Sequence to fold (147 residues):
Amino acid sequence: MKPALSKKISSIIFIANLTIAITWLYHGIIPKLMYMETGELSMVIDSGMFRGNEVAVVYIVGIAEVIFGLLILFFGRKNILHWLNVFGLLALAIGATFAKPDIYSYPFNPATTEFGIIGLSIIVLLLNNYFPGINKKQNPQRENVHL
Fold:
């Protein structure tokens, strides 16, 4: 692969990873750790699954989202993180549907974030294929890839 193309692909991967990381960090810090009263807490309460532990659950989820955002930020070239992102967001979407079914009718609902972030992870997964050795052992056939 030509160095200029490699640099462009690396930049795209960096921007995608940075966007994914900022999204997870924001969603962990702002609506869960700082301002859970704006909807996150009521969604957990409405689910009825964690009676008496709702605040702790929101804090735990917020901390987990911050950790995941940091993992993407520092280790975003690892495909496993992007597969976890895709399936994790799908699981959260299903959970939100059961906890508060009307949430997807709101403007700026979770789907607007989920689809974009899932798409960015898929882009990173596809582009990582052009960098042998990042996620797998070196494959000599991959070195002859031309775009």
About this structure: The chain has a mean pLDDT of 88. Helices lie at 3-34, 40-47, 54-75, 79-99, 110-128.
